[in-house]
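Sequence in, structure out.
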Amino acid sequence: MTADVQPLLWVPEIDRALAFYRDALGFETLFTGMNPKTGDTGTAAVRYRGAVLILSALDLFAPDGDQAPGGVSLYFHVDEDLDALFARWKDAPGGRAVAAPADQWWGDRTFILADPFGYRLIISRPVGAAGA
């Protein structure tokens, strides 16, 4: 038996989410699904390399009560030039650069972006031994 995790991010505006992830960052769209109440796009799956995210504006997945979207950080491991990727992504329309590339004490080089809804994307690549 196998399993994987595909984080589902509730977004109030699916078109805005797709504009950020697909159009600005270059994620591949795997599928879109209809909102049964409106007939509009309600859900989409996007992929960067092997990492899949589900984006959904469906009420079924909306936060409870006074919770707002953005309460999750996603940690991506990549095998590409982190500084070049940051240069391409830091000014993505709708997003915001939170932290520029920096070597971390645990052995990764990371940068952080926030998407239009406050979700944080931590992009990392190993650069050395932990604690070095």
